[in-house]
Specification:
single chain, 329 residues, Rossmann fold, alpha/beta
Length: 329
């Protein structure tokens, strides 16, 4: 019996591989998968891609979406849109299609061409590591650091709402710096970046290869309908209050949130854009009163800064320095 152990093990291995291949073939035939083109290019092109798991659990029809990533004109896909609209599902389905293609499976799409990637990196979701005493933000930063140190030009990176675990300003700066880094020469990887920091859509005009997309929605009075379709262009709204209403928040909370939102929108100073057209608002006011603004030395230093030659991290460091100076006066 012992003499045949090697033969039994080899047979078991072959049967296991055959079972796995039969499972892939069965799924492909049953669910309408297609044979992808796999090559050594740097392009990932998916036509009418679907999430292989989510589409089987939905009661309604799954909405397919296209995706195009390469290392030139479509290097970083910046994705905006409300929560629950499907940003994470879209990113995951692209990663799964790439993975399935590279293991030899047919894929859930109408057509797909996949340039081989060396690794798929994901930073999706938030959780605490209480056993190690790490907050969700610390876990996020640790995992993100590992990605930035390891990814190459042949990698595929998925980043979902980077920087949300700290203050809005710091989170935006971290997200901006990360986007610049993965886009730059040190990494240059194909990247899908979902965010609620709408300022990041400005990278499309600053960095070649950054392309804005958003998840389409339809507003109907005080309701929101998720269309699940990924379309070109950015958005400057997250529809947070409407999503909270969909989630079943008490009506008193929704009404108060709308009241506060209207108040803040009417009193916050504009940073650009016509009223109602792409307007955004400053997070804080450093100094009060027009006379104080005219004479304060920190304001004079602010006016002398050349922001076009500063990275987001340098800007954050300078802001911290100016904040300390303002407190000393």
């Amino acid at each position: 019996m012992g003499a045949e152990a090697a033969c039994v093990q080899a047979t078991a291995l072959a049967l296991g591989e055959l079972a796995a291949l039969c499972s892939l073939a069965h799924a492909a035939d049953r669910h309408g998968y297609v044979r992808p083109k796999v090559d050594s290019s740097d392009t990932i092109k998916i036509i009418d891609g679907r999430h292989p798991v989510v589409e089987r659990t939905l009661t309604e029809k799954f909405v397919p979406n296209d995706a195009l990533l390469d290392c030139t004109k479509n290097r970083l896909m910046m994705i905006t849109g409300p929560n629950m609209a499907g940003k994470s599902t879209f990113m995951r389905q692209v990663a799964l299609i790439v993975f399935m293609a590279q293991v030899g499976s047919f894929v859930p799409a109408r057509a797909a061409s996949v340039g081989i990637v060396d690794r798929i990196f994901t930073r999706v979701g938030a959780y605490d590591d209480l056993a190690r005493g790490q907050s969700s933000f610390m876990v996020e930063m640790t995992e993100l650091a590992a990605i930035l140190h390891t990814a190459t030009k042949r990698s595929l990176i998925l980043l979902d709402e980077i920087g949300r675990g700290t203050s809005t300003f710091e989170g935006l700066c971290i997200a901006w710096a990360v986007a610049e880094y993965v886009h730059g020469k040190k990494v240059g990887a194909k990247t899908m970046f979902a965010t609620h920091y709408h300022d990041l859509t400005g990278l499309e005009g600053l960095l070649p290869g950054v392309v804005n997309y958003n998840i389409a929605v339809r507003e109907d009075a005080d309701e929101i309908v998720f269309l699940r379709k990924v379309i070109p262009g950015g958005t400057n709204r997250s529809y947070g209050v409407l999503v909270a209403k969909l989630a079943g928040m008490p009506q008193e909370v929704i009404a108060r949130a709308r009241e506060l939102l209207r108040e803040m929108e009417s009193t916050a100073p504009l940073r650009g854009g016509e009223p109602g057209k792409g307007r955004t608002y400053t997070q804080l006011v450093l100094f009060d009163g027009p006379g104080h603004l005219a004479t304060h030395p920190v304001v004079e230093e602010l006016r002398g800064l050349n922001l076009h030659n500063m990275t987001p991290i340098q800007a954050l460091q300078k802001l911290d320095e100016l904040k300390r100076k303002a407190g000393e006066k």
